[in-house]
From TrEMBL:
Residues 93-113 have a biased composition (Basic and acidic residues). This is Lipoprotein. The keyword Signal applies. It comes from Pelomonas caseinilytica. Residues 26-40 have a biased composition (Low complexity).
Length: 123
């Protein structure tokens, strides 16, 4: 009987170990099945792009549809000036929303989301 228990325990331990060794699925920055964009904060549109509550002023006051439209709009710009104008307009809109709701005005973004569009200096 002790041998049977030992073998059963060994098989259970081996099975549990192989289950635990499996990856838990896509990483946090992989889009969920059927999602059209990466998870919040994971970025897109370039190696340094980020969005989400820690990067986008007013994120909590936006609907999921507005967040998606904001990401798509940022990714669509071809010039730095157009991008900066949109970012300023977006910040102004979020500041007005915050004021209407009695919330603090969101701080300016911590980084320049339009920086990848800046013209590179010629050598």
């Amino acid at each position: 009987m002790n041998t049977a228990r030992f073998i059963t325990a060994l098989l259970l331990a081996a099975g549990a170990g192989s289950v635990l060794a499996q990856p838990a699925g896509p990483g946090p920055c992989m889009a969920a099945s059927g999602a059209s964009a990466p998870a919040a904060g994971c970025g897109g549109g370039g190696p340094h792009a980020r969005w989400g509550k820690d990067f986008t002023p007013g994120w909590p006051m936006m609907t999921p549809e507005e967040r998606q439209a904001h990401r798509e709009r940022l990714a669509s710009f071809k010039t730095y000036e157009d991008c900066k104008a949109y970012v300023q307009q977006h910040h102004d809109e979020m500041a007005a929303r915050a004021k209407e709701r009695g919330r603090p005005v969101p701080a300016a973004p911590r980084r320049d989301a339009c920086a990848p569009l800046k013209a590179k200096p010629s050598k």
